[in-house]
Amino acid sequence: MQQREKSFGIQMLSVQPDTKPKGCAGCNRKIKDRYLLKALDKYWHEDCLKCACCDCRLGEVGSTLYTKANLILCRRDYLRLFGVTGNCAACSKLIPAFEMVMRAKDNVYHLDCFACQLCNQRFCVGDKFFLKNNMILCQTDYEEGLMKEGYAPQVR
Ligand SMILES: [Zn+2]
Ligand SMILES: [Zn+2]
Ligand SMILES: [Zn+2]
Ligand SMILES: [Zn+2]
């Protein structure tokens, strides 16, 4: 299940001096600057199109904005608030982007799911863990597995 991101392009337009000034959708004042931003079919001062969370000027940050629930957000905040990190490689459930995760190679895990999949040992920061056939293993189980021939770990 893939969530589509709601991103919208931002265009920077130079204002033709002989046209009627457009109203800014942010502050409702007329835009008399040399440049204006066009986004979401509205016009904005460069200063007025800002991320609702971090106040960064969206015209500068890569020319896309994200909206959700009437908020205008930069990509980073959008993903932080509404995005998903991916599926936990252990329990295959979605991990919301704001949740702390453990990462191993390309896999992400819930903190609670990040344990040796054979003996359930949890890992602390700095502990060694191993990935074999996409399973997380503690050092003991990993080394034991290496010693056995035809090693086939059982998924619980
Ligand atoms: Zn404005
Ligand atoms: Zn932001
Ligand atoms: Zn999980
Ligand atoms: Zn183990």
Describe the structure.
It is rod-shaped and about 80 Å long. The model has no long low-confidence stretch (mean pLDDT 86). It has 2 helices and 12 strands; from the N terminus they run ββββββαββββββα. 23% of the residues are buried. The chain is mainly β and 156 residues long. The two termini are 24 Å apart. The strands form 5 sheets. The protein has a 3-stranded antiparallel β-sheet with strand order 1-5-6, covered by helices on one side. Strands 2-3-4 form a 3-stranded antiparallel β-sheet, with no helix packed on it. The protein has helices spanning 75-82, 139-147; strands at residues 7-9, 11-14, 35-39, 42-44, 64-68, 71-73, 84-87, 94-96, 101-104, 107-110, 129-132, 135-138. The structure holds zinc ion (4 copies). One zinc ion is lined by residues 24, 26-27, 29, 45, 48. One zinc ion binds at residues 51, 53-54, 56, 73-74, 76-77. Keywords: LIM domain, Metal-binding, Repeat, Zinc. One of its GO terms (molecular function) is transcription coactivator activity. This is LIM domain only protein 3.
Entry keywords:
156 residues, mainly beta, three-stranded antiparallel β-sheet, 2 helices, 11% helix, binds zinc ion, repeat, transcription coactivator activity, LMO_RBTN_TF, zinc
Radius of gyration: 24 Å
Bound molecules: zinc ion
Widest sheet: strand order? 1-5-6
Strand content: 25-35%
Following the backbone from N to C, one meets helices and strands in this order, namely EEEEEEHEEEEEEH
Major β-sheet profile: 3 strands, antiparallel
Structure annotation, total helices: 2
